[in-house]
Design brief:
- The chain has 550 residues and is α+β, with helices and mostly antiparallel strands.
- The chain has 3 domains: 98 residues, Alpha-Beta Plaits; 298 residues, 3-Layer(aba) Sandwich (Aminopeptidase), CATH 3.40.630; 106 residues, Sandwich (Immunoglobulin-like).
- Helix content is 26%, strand content 22%.
- It contains 15 helices and 22 strands.
- The chain has an 8-stranded mixed β-sheet with strand order 5-6-8-7-9-12-10-11, with helices on both faces. Strands 14, 16, 17, 20, 21 and 22 form a 6-stranded mixed β-sheet that branches.
- A hairpin with a 5-residue loop joins strand 5 and strand 6.
- The longest helix has 20 residues.
- The protein is globular and about 80 Å long.
- The protein starts with 8 loop residues before the first helix and ends in a 6-residue tail after the last strand.
Length: 550
């Protein structure tokens, strides 16, 4: 049923024209209204955009240049023009700008979208689920936002209120750290209701799942910002921190909550920004924001096996690590099994892979923190925009059929994560991919050449020669085995790699082990493999070319 909320969206587009001439604050907000633009830039200009903290939504090749999508104010657009970067308003359905498209959706109230505050909105619905389903649902207030809204999390499991939090294998489904990404909140909400409805309908699979696992939902991790996108500016991304302390929320305020976590906080200016006006502004320090503190506190307290942190827009399925390129975790075999790759993705038409390689680098980011600090393997699904033949940016259409289609598209992956929580090292993959005890190289061909995913080599130039393997921790002690020129099998111990000067991969279920081959001469052929826990790895062979002292 349509609701009358959000009629103000129709006014957003022409807001500056309606403001009284003398009302400076209203006119300023009009000048600062966000909209989406497209620009054609070269590599140097793209670097400038990143350094200056502009909100780059997407980039794609266009001949020798790059076409980028940007969210800008009129003032920011003028600044780019002074730098020689021309921008064009992004046009979507019917030739409308993104703000015009949003206003047209809101003109008569929404069919699908719900704000946080409105009667029947997200807050009310979470209270209602808990009230009507006490046998499986428990509502927890995990914190309070800057503006005083509750940060709500819902636990769904059999006997939810009598079962100690975190006592069963647990998964966190969170969404909408970025306020404008409405489809993320809605997909999270629908998954929550799908499980509750399935339980009530006596669905055997769902009932068994909720007997064995506890599934947590935070569909709106940025309630202030989310409400602001309904009330004031549809394209707002950050929380509502008043950065300059002037008592108003305008462009230049707010913190990017997905850059406010401790891991690699302030690592560089590419993965987050020190510029307050930037849409990736990380804040004055790690966990400076109450919203971050609330979600981090939940991650720390429960000890989740997995987290799925929904975002939009882009059809990517991203996983750790994101702070630098070519940096897989030791648990990459589990990520690959549950995610697939570009050739065979776990979600139709999505591009899975390392966050830093598939999309862009980030630091102070949620899922990197979840994995490396709390032990929760974590994904960022970047959902589609609901406009397969056009670019609708962040304004997913207010269309029940399109929204349900997006939910159903991601549902098998979302459930596979839940089904894998009781045995994460042997995940229940929708692709049928099984993890192995040992890896000398990744099963994902897209990771060929990444050092952290491939340990085979053809030639050795030293003795002793270090060799390494990725092994399940559950195997226990692992022994290096090798044979020189087909001779007797020799054994050597292995130990866990302690990491390099700057980096040690997150390693919850797998770890990287190293041993040393000794006693070779130039020209020797050496076969290497590993054994442990009653399992044996595949082998590889290298040639000893020269020795250290030669």
């Amino acid at each position: 049923m349509r609701r009358g909320l959000a009629l103000m969206f129709a006014a957003i587009v022409g807001f500056a024209l309606m403001a009284p001439v003398g009302d400076a604050a209203e006119q300023r907000r009009g000048r600062e209204r966000l909209n989406m633009y497209t620009a054609l830039v070269n590599a140097e200009q793209l670097g400038q955009l990143t350094e200056q903290g502009f909100d780059i939504n997407a980039e794609r090749a266009d001949g020798t240049n790059l076409k980028v999508d940007l969210v800008l104010t009129n003032q920011q657009r003028a600044k780019l023009a002074q730098q020689g970067i021309r921008t064009k308003l992004t046009r979507v359905k019917g030739g409308q700008t993104v703000q015009q498209f949003a206003a047209a959706q809101a003109e008569n109230g929404f069919d699908v979208w719900r704000s946080w505050d409105e009667p029947g909105g997200f807050s009310d619905q979470m209270y209602e689920i808990a009230r009507e389903n006490p046998q499986i649902a428990k509502l927890v207030n995990i914190g309070t936002t800057i503006q005083g809204r509750e940060m709500l999390a819902l636990k769904i499991t059999q006997g939810a209120r009598g079962q100690r939090d975190g006592s069963r294998p647990a998964v966190l489904y969170s969404a909408t750290q970025h306020a404008r990404e409405w489809i993320a909140a809605e997909v999270d909400r629908r998954l929550m209701n799908y499980l509750v409805d399935g339980w009530r309908a006596n669905d055997r699979e769902i009932r068994n799942l909720l007997k064995e696992t506890e599934l947590w939902f935070v569909p709106v991790a940025n309630p202030d910002g989310y409400q602001y996108t309904f009330d004031t500016d549809r394209l707002w991304r950050k929380n509502l921190r008043d950065n300059n302390g002037d008592g108003e929320i305008t462009v230049g305020d707010g913190i990017d909550l997905n850059r406010n976590y401790p891991n690699h906080f302030k690592y560089d200016e590419e993965g987050s920004s020190s510029i307050p006006s930037s849409e990736t502004y990380r804040g004055t320090g790690p966990v400076s924001e109450p919203e971050t503190e609330a979600l981090k506190g939940l991650l720390d307290r429960i000890g989740f096996e997995f987290q799925v942190n929904y975002h939009s827009v882009g059809e990517w399925l991203l996983y750790a690590e994101g702070w630098q390129i070519g940096t897989p975790t030791a648990d990459d075999p589990i990520y690959f099994a549950l995610s697939g790759n570009l050739d065979e993705p776990a979600i139709d038409d999505f591009h899975p892979g390392l966050s830093s390689d598939v999309l862009y680098v980030t630091n102070g980011e949620t899922t990197d923190y979840a994995h490396s600090t709390t032990g929760a393997l974590a994904w960022t699904p970047e959902l589609g925009d609901g406009c397969p033949d056009e670019d609708c940016g962040f304004v997913f259409p207010d269309d029940e059929e399109a929204v349900q289609q997006e939910f159903e598209r991601i549902l098998p992956f979302s459930l596979s994560v839940a089904k894998s929580a009781d045995d994460p090292e042997n995940p229940d993959s929708v692709l049928g991919i099984e993890t192995k005890p040992f890896y000398l190289e990744s099963d994902d061909p897209y990771k060929e050449g990444i050092p952290g995913a491939n340990f085979k080599f053809e030639y050795s130039y030293g003795d002793p020669q270090p060799v390494q393997v990725l092994a399940k921790r559950s195997l226990g002690n692992v022994t290096l085995k090798y044979s020189i020129n087909g001779g007797s099998v020799q054994s050597a111990p292995t130990s866990e790699w302690e990491g390099g000067e700057r980096y040690k991969p997150a390693d919850v279920y797998y770890h990287e082990l190293r041993g040393e081959v000794t006693g070779t001469e130039p020209g020797d052929s050496v076969e290497v493999w590993f054994e442990g826990g009653g399992e044996s790895s595949e082998s590889f062979t290298y040639e000893a070319v020269s020795e250290t002292a030669s």
